[in-house]
Amino acid sequence: MTDLLDSVVEAHGGLKRWNEMETVSAHLAQGGVTREMVGQKGVLDDVFVTASLHEERVSHYPFGAAGRRSVFTPARGAIENDDGTVVGALDQPWASFAGNTLQMPWTASQLAYLSAPRCGPTSRSRSRSPCQGSKLLSWSRGGKR
Length: 145
What we know:
three-stranded antiparallel sheet, alpha+beta, 28% strand
């Protein structure tokens, strides 16, 4: 690890503590003109985002309707009900955008895939971090605010 990373991890309880944690959650407002342009206005205006700390997996809740959540993994974007029933999924998300323009509406599963923050080495962002432009309303670590 780098000196900076080492110092940050140590300041938050050390690597042992990090490995004890499963997820990090934040209450976000993720609006913006792009979501309106693709027919998904308001879907992410007031959501709780939970990210796994040990695998690339992110979920937004609620997602479009009460009782629904998004599930992002690098290979899939999906929408599930609270009981885990899948109501929409893309198993090859990038392929679903072939031929799309910003004027074409996105499906809920496409929004689920592209709304997950991908800030690490697997990020597909070319111009700016997909983590920019969200407003943090509150956060918790391991269930503690």
